[in-house]
Amino acid sequence: MKPLSPTDQLFLWLEKRQQPMHVGGLQLFSFPEDAPDDYVAQLADQLRQYTEVTSPFDRRLDTRLSQPVWVHDDHLDLEHHFRFEALPTPGRIRELLTFVSAEHSHLMDRERPLWEFHLIEGLGHRQFAVYIKIHHSLVDGISAMRMIQRMLSTDPSQRNMPPIWDLRGQVTRDNDGDGLSIWRSMVHLLGESGKQLGTVPTVARELLRTINEARKDPAYDSIFRAPRSILNQKITGSRRFAAQSYSMKRIKAVCKAFGATVNDVVTAMCATALRTYLMNQDALPEKPLIAMVPVSLRKDESSEGNQVGVILANLHTDEGDAGERLRKIHQGIQEAKDRYAKMSSDEIINYTALTLAPAAFNFLTGMAPGWQTFNVVISNVPGPKETSYWNGAKLEGMYPVSIAMDRLALNMTLTSYNDQIEFGLIGCRRTLPSLQRMLDYLEDGLAELEQAAAL
Questions:
Q1: pTM
Q2: 238 and 133 in one domain?
Q3: What's the distance, Cα to Cα, between the start and end of the chain in Å?
Q4: Does residue 133 share a domain with residue 36?
Q5: How far apart are CA 449 and CA 455, in angstroms?
Q6: Which of 27, 80, 262, 294 has its CA 20 to 30 A from that of 381?
Q7: Are 247 and 334 in the same domain?
Q8: Among residues of the chain, what percentage have pLDDT more than 70?
Q9: Does 275 reside within a domain?
Q10: For residue 177, is it within any domain?
């Protein structure tokens, strides 16, 4: 038995029919060169032999003294969690994304462990896919990515590799501290108030400095009051998932030309895509959109400690020139990094919690709809740096599938893999029609930056 942390309980409280609180991932594989045509069916038979389920996949929800706890599920039905499915013909990527869109819309059964593993055949070009979804109360996005990476290998000859639910003998870490979300920030602030008291002077000083900047500089004002937009309406339970890969080589060439980071460039790509999409919907606000962006503050190669900060980034969607938009985004993100450089990890967490408190209040209660702290989430989760394989099948792409919420109808999450940047966009199907066109607008955004850099 393991009690849920206050943060993990929050993901359960937030869940409702139109707001599932699970995260997911889509992996696209190519058959091994020597594989028979029924390779995926043989793989499904092999996976069914892994009947031992390791933590956290063996846990289900229960209550003790009216408090939610994780308990071992003594009657776990693996057939419910592992599903072997086929796409309808003609088995294109379009059918695959439609499948993920529908599955990601469905709530999971709280009487069972909150995860599903879908092995999907029926794709053309001798390819297959894996779609995994896990409730956010069970793991966070960083932890989920690390579990998936432990399932993979850089050796194409390796076989008999276990699935994610049976990683015996491998070290697992629950809710790794590198993932700094809104909720974890604020619960950390409230739950460790004694320890946090020492950070108050620095946090107050930096917050006051930010507020004073907002008073003097109109561009700063949007940090505390994002514009109203169609992205920030109540949503339905129906989802649209769109995914695509973009060349890291192209993105790094833009970085070099502008003296920017990869995070700056992908944020600018998102800004252009949002600007174009909203203009085509005749719904672009006059004021620039604001994104909630986690940024790495790591200065070394260590893996310990919380070295991620959350910033509110002005996307400058009112700026028509792509190159100038990138310069302004880079400047804003750099200023936030410089501010965090003066703080300890605890001070960063507290500063984040205080600046995002209005957003959290709005999401939890819906009682302050006029106060929109940010319009969209743009999150970057690091993935494998080398070409990876699973039972000899080459991993061609891995796309994150995140969470859309009331008043936050779009989530733009991306991950790096080898020499690619993989975008996964999840949004409310009704609130944001034709969301898949955002992929073309992301490409247009990168092409505009290449043109501005004379590449």
A1: 0.87
A2: no
A3: 58
A4: yes
A5: 9
A6: 80
A7: yes
A8: 81
A9: yes
A10: no
Q: In this structure, which amino acid lies at residue 258? A: F
136 is catalytic: yes
Answer whether residue 284 is part of any domain. yes
CATH of the domain at 370: 3.30.559.30
State whether 139 and 197 are in the same domain.
no
Q: In 316-390, which residue ranges form alpha helices assigned H by DSSP?
A: 322-341, 345-365
Q: Which of 173, 191, 247, 303 is nearest to 422 (CA)?
A: 247
* pLDDT, tens digit (0-9, with 9 covering 90-100), for 339-386: 888 887 777 777 776 777 667 666 666 666 667 889 999 998 889 999
Q: Among 151, 173, 198, which residue terminates a domain?
A: 151
Handedness of CA 382, 386, 387, 392 (dihedral sign): negative
What is the distance between the alpha carbons of residues 69 and 33, in angstroms, rounded to a whole number?
Answer: 46
Q: Are 262 and 415 in contact (CB under 8 A)?
A: no
- Residue of 444, 90, 451, 78 whose CA lies nearest to 244: 444
Q: Which residues contact 181 (CB under 8 A, 6 or more apart)?
A: 140, 294, 310
List 104, 136, 316, 330, catalytic entry: 136
**Could you tell me the CA-to-CA distances from 344 to 202, 298, 351 in Å, in that order?**
9, 12, 10
**Beta carbons of 402 and 380 less than 8 angstroms apart:** no
What residue has token string 């942390």? 5
pLDDT tens readout for residues 243-281: 999 999 999 999 999 999 999 999 999 999 999 999 999
Q: Are residues 141 and 234 in the same domain?
A: no
Identify any residues that bridge with 413 across adjacent strands, giving them in sequence order: 379, 424
> Are 425 and 321 in the same domain?
yes
Tokens in use for 34?
């020597």
Q: What DSSP character marks residue 232?
A: G
Task: Give the range of the structural domain holding residue 113, as residue numbers without chain letter.
Answer: 2-151
What's the pLDDT at 255?
98
Give the C-alpha separation, 295 to 312, whole Å. Answer: 10
Which of 111, 134, 151 delimits the end of a domain? Answer: 151
Q: Which two tokens stand for residue 382?
A: 């690091």
Cα 449 from Cα 257, distance rounded (Å): 10
- Chain CA centroid to CA 136, Å: 11
Q: What is the CATH number of the domain that holds 19?
A: 3.30.559.10
Question: DSSP class of residue 197?
Answer: G
Structural tokens at position 429: 């199907």
Please report the pLDDT score of residue 194 as a whole number.
Answer: 46
118 shares a domain with 218: no
Asked if 44 and 84 count as a contact pair (C-beta separation under 8 A), the reply is yes
pLDDT band of 451, cuts 50, 70, 90: very high
Is residue 169, in this structure, part of any structural domain at all?
no
User: For the chain, what is the domain count?
Assistant: 2
Summary mean pLDDT of the chain: 86
